[in-house]
Amino acid sequence: MQTAHMAIRRQARSCQRKGEGGRGSHRARPRIQTTTALDPNQMKALTFKRYGKSPDIGFSERARPTLQPDELLVEVHAAGVNPIDNMIPTGIFKPVVKFELPATLGSDVAGIVIDVGSRVTRFKRGDAIFASVFDLGRGTIAEYVAVPESAAALKPANLDFMQAASLPMVALTSWQALKERADLQPGQKVFIPAGSGGIGTIAIQLAKHLGATVGTTTSTGNVALVNSLGADEVVDYKQQDFETVLRGYDIALGTMRGDTIEKSLAILKPGGRIVSLVGPLDAAFARARRLNVVLQFVFAMMSRKIIRLANKHNVAYSFLFVRPNGTQLAKIGELLEAERLRPVIDKVFVFDQAKQALEYLAQDRAKGKVVVKINK
To answer: Please, are residues 169 and 255 in contact by the beta-carbon 8 Å criterion?
Structure first.
């Protein structure tokens, strides 16, 4: 991905020079406003002010969101953090994910609906919801966030706000990768590297629910965890190379940067599929987002090597960019309420430590998810 990141940075700089801009059925009663801002129309949020090596991440006072007719105003109780939250301020995804600066960080939210737009029909004030607002030009590490009705689902009744906030992005990513893109069928074998990570801990459980045999990698200390999530074949990467152990797989998820995706080709059957969540980005992705021809060419060059190698092994390669989807999240919520899936949380930080939460996540040591607790 280093080459990919350099290519995107070059394109981002080019765009900047040309003047382009930066960017459950549970119910709960509405809570009394707890914002720390003196002005009731303001809120506290974790923001970044610029792209690059010095994004100036910190707290600032921002205007509370103004609702559109199809949106919910949500008092945030917890926000999940994801690796993309550390990547966005660097500018790596600037040509793809648009923000107006300064921008609020975070994509995952769980909280209470305190107001609804005029066209909202499925939610009301007092509802406890969870959602992903990724790629919608807004953030969740804040006291309030506007959430499109189409992105939200009722919070599973058996989960607290921290547990619910840990799930939207990783659960939707797993769902869209395994069910939509890969069309995973009962009896198939799927390889999910980094099984103890944020995506891995949910993807393993979902794949098992769908009837698959699951292989994964992890370190010695996390073998018991991934076994408890349902993994069938576990490779301790400190002891063995997975490509010398695993065979006959139908699908591989790309969850790690580096050469893991290329090595996955060795374990896939002819006709298998690689669905990458970390890149390289491909031309199909650029076309789907209607990006300009320059970016289409850049992304085609970035993915040329892996596509060539995949074709050599009679394997299909594609890149997946998760999208918010409240209907899918509601179905995931049903699995959570039925205890077919369970959240795995490594650490919860209080709101004032939100920046430290991102720094902790950047160490790549978390078992499961990292969450920021916003309102009490």
So the answer is: no
- The radius of gyration of the chain's CA atoms, rounded to the nearest angstrom, is 20
CATH code assigned at 126: 3.90.180.10
Cα 262 to chain centroid, rounded: 22
Looking at the DSSP bridge assignments, the partners of residue 74 are 113, 145
Helix axis angle, 293-302 to 2-17, nearest 10°: 170
pLDDT tens digits along 308-361:
999 999 999 999 999 999 999 999 999 999 999 999 999 999 999 999 999 999
- CA-wise closest residue to 1 among 91, 92, 74, 67: 92
Residue 279: strand, helix, or coil: coil
pLDDT tens track for 356-368: 999 999 998 899 9
Structural domain including 293 reads: 169-319
**What is the rounded CA–CA span in Å between residue 192 and residue 276?**
11
In angstroms, the CA 205 to CA 208 distance is 5
Distances from the Cα of 4 to the Cαs of 64, 152, 254, in angstroms?
Answer: 36, 32, 15
Write the pLDDT tens digit of every residue in 208-219. Answer: 999 999 999 999
Q: Are residues 177 and 311 in the same domain?
A: yes
